[in-house]
Each structure stands twice: as C-alpha cells, then as structure tokens.
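Human: Respectfully, please carefully check these tokens:
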Amino acid sequence: MGARAWQAHRWPLLAGAALVASGCAVGPNYQRPSAPVPETYKEAAPAMPAGGGEWKAAQPADVSSRGRWWLVFGDPQLDALEERVSVSNQNIALAAAQFQGARAAARGARAQFFPTIGVAPSVTRSHSPVARTSALPGAPVGTATTYQLQGDVAYEVDLWGKVRRNVESKIASAQATAADLETVRLSMHAELAVDYFLLQGADEQERILQSNVAADEKAQQLTIHRHDQGIVSGVDVAQAQTQLETTRAQLTELSITRAELEHALAILVGEPPADFAIAAAPAGVLPVAAPPPLPSELLERRPDVASAERRVAAANADVGVAQAAFFPSLLLNATGGWEGSSLTRWFSAPSLFWSLGVALAQTIFDGGARLAGKEQAIAAYDATVAAYRESVLGALQEVEDNLAALRFLAQEVEEQRRAVAAAERALALAQSRYEGGITTYLEVVTAQAAALSNERTAVDLQTRRLTATVNLIKALGGGWSESDLPAPRTVLGSQPASTENANPGAGPR
C-alpha cells in the first residue's frame, strides 16, 4: 500500500482494528461458586403436628404472593401494620436510596463506552506593540479581537474489555444492593410480626394476671373473714396479702414489656411512639404450617444469599479490570473549530482549524503496583466466595433451627396443656381443703403460684410457636425469588426502579 493510499485509509483501518480488539475481554468469566447444600433438612417434620389439628396449613401460593407472607395468619390488624412498614419504615427507605445510588454508579460506568465531547467558545481582546493586521515591523500599536469556537472529542477504545468488566461489576453490585433492600424489607416485616405476636402474648398474660388478681382479692377477703371469726391465724392473712401483691407486681412488670413492644412497633411503621397505640385484642391467631422447599431451592429464595452471590460476580469482574491494566490503552482525540477576528467571516475556510490524534499508552514500570492491584482483586474475590458460602450455611442453619423449634414446641405445648390442667386441679383441691379447715393457706398459695406459672408458660409457648413460624418464613425467604432481581437493563435504565414493583428479570449468570 502506498503512502497516499495509507493516508486515505488509515482512519477506517485504525477504527476497524480497534473494533476487532475491543471484542476481547481479559479476566475470568464468571461462574457461580459451589456451596455445601444437603439434599434434605435434618429437622424437617410433617406439616401438621402430632397430637392435634391446631395448625392450619398454608397454601403455597399464599407464602409466595410477592412477599406478603403475613396474610397466611389471617389477622387484619397485622396486615394493616405490615402494609405501613412497606411505606414508612426508614430502614427500608435507606436501603432503597442505596439501591438507587448503586444504579447511578452502574450508569456512570457505562458512560465510559462513549466518547467525551466538549465545546469551548471564547472571545479574546488583545493588545500588542505590533499591529496584528500589519506584516511590517515597527507598525503602529494594534488592538485586536479574536473569536474562537473549539470542539474536542476524546475516546479510549475498550481494547481489553476493561470498561465492560467494570460495567459488569457495577451491575452485579447494584443487583446485590437490590437484594440487600429485599433483605432489609423482609427483616423489618418479620420483626414487626414477631413484636406483634409478643404484644399479643403480653396481652394474654395480662388477662391471666388480672384474673388472678381478682381471685387473690377474693381469697384475701375470705381469709380476713375467717381470721375475724378466729378460724385461721394472722399468718394466713399475711400469706394471702403476699400472694396478692406479688401478682400485682407481676402485672405491673408486664406493663413495661407491653409498652416497649408498642414503642418498637411504632418505630417500625415510621411513627413517633407518642402517636401510636394498639388496643389489647384476644390472641386468636394460630401457628401456620407449610412444608419447606428443598435446600437447593433455598439458595434461590434468600435475598441475603443472592446478595452475597452477586458480590462474588462483581469481584470476579474486578479481577478482569485489574488484569486489563497490564495492557496498553488506545486513545483517540480530535479537535476542530473556527477562529477569526470577525464573526461575519467566522465560518470561512481560512478560519477553520482541526487536528486528529492517536495515542497508544503503555506503562513500562510501576514498581509492582499493577501486580499488587491484581492480587488484591483476587483476594477480594476469594473473600466474597467465602462470604457467599458462609451465608449459605447460615441460611441452612436458620431453617434447621426454626424447624426444630416448631417441632419440639408442638410437643411442648401439648405437655404444658396437661401441666396446666393438673395445676388447676391441684389449686381447686387445695382451696377445698383450706375451706374445710384441713390445711393452712400456705398450701393454697403454693398451688396458686404453680397454676399461675403454668398458665403463663402455656401462653409463652404459644407465642414462641408464632414467632418461630415467622422466623421460619423469614429463613425461607418470605416468598422472594432470585428471579425478582432487577435485570441489567433495569439497573441501567434512567427511570426510578424498586425491586418490590419491578418486573421480574433474571440477572447475569
């Protein structure tokens, strides 16, 4: 090819070479790391507990209804509170803002695919001892005005896929942040349900204590009457008084617990505690049973596991970014515009100026900085792999813990029900013996304390079953699915996106 032909074709050839070179991307292609997942759960049990049909079976469609898993409990007041969490909880608002920031970072990384274009119009008024309009030395002093319109275009060709790997990393990071948002949302909803059921349990225990206070007051009056008749001693009166005041103290202590739970619910729905109140209501909600999915499916249902996996993908892409630093950079730039002393002749041919340039930049020596950067990226990748596997193990543990809790609590509730019945029979017998003058009031006090303790324990066990059910639903992902992660086009879109309302789209694999 002759010199003239090369001059004519050099720009198309350079552009074609850059396009071909940009088709490769250095660095490892991403593969999801393996994780230890068993075939079945160790603590898995039948959906309906032995010893009674107290649980109601949840329909699979209920739990997977876009995360509104609390509907399976059939409690309208709980449903209303949960809806307020989605709108007003500030932890969810914080996570949503972080997700939008991660999306903006991804769009910023994508912008490196495009050239940078700038324009710089200017007007310069200058004075020199030699008139600019004269070519003769020693001409009179001259003043001139120069008008200039200059444009610049700069572009770095993505020869080795550095930009693409960086965009991959930012998209994966944004998807991880979206999963973090879902983790926060699931945690806030579960925390509200747990606090709500604890509040109901406190109300139920308060009813038990109030009933016992009323019974203790009657027993005290009976004891005083018998003392006045000379049937019993003052010791019996003192014991009756002690039992009454002890029960009242327990009732007061329970009021503290209820107030704290009510305040916690207020914060979860985004309100000051002073403006929030929940009236006491009968505890009519029953635990829900639903067979858990297979452990292999758990990885697709837990947003925190999905977040850890997406961070592995981001770290993998960062290795490619670090590796691309070892290769040269191809820079293209162009400058052009018009310059003249008069706007009327600005766009004439003599006023036009331009320049084109190509630069190939390669670092020859950096003291090992690039190698250290690559090693750091690889170490960060290894750390995210370990964190991902740990999150999988933690998810499996949470499921196993709550499956075991529900299985044993079902058995314990039945045992405690029998204990309550026995304690009530013992109390009735002790009261009958005391009224018949066979025993002292100490036997009645002992039986009353045992009956009250067993009744409160029964309520506590029922509350623990409800909270364990909530925690199991949370451990199973609350109906979330990995397919709900925002797709790359959603991450890079300019419109605001929320993972709760976005159309499901699979992330890159």
In short: The chain has eleven helices and six strands. Residues 126 and 144 are 5 Å apart (CA to CA).
